[in-house]
Design brief:
alpha+beta, 3 helices, three-stranded mixed β-sheet
Amino acid sequence: GPEAAPRAALGPAEDGGYYLIGLNRPQGEIFADIPWGTAEVYTKTIMIMNRLNVKVEVMDQWRDVDSPEDLEALRQRLAGAPEDAAPHTRAWLRGR
């Protein structure tokens, strides 16, 4: 049958990037010419997806973890969360 229309899920991060991206098929061109490490990553990604006619589902804004400070903030949030929250993340952190 015909190839599925390009679709994506994108979760904007508080710092201007994104914490999650999901694609229903490979879309390598989405990642070209992105100013990585800047506050423009999310906006530029959306612009490229729009140009490529990718249907985007935008998730809630959240925090990403890309610095030691972000990791510590995550540990603190998990310490105050119910014990069954984020079990895989908790297991990974225990191994560190």
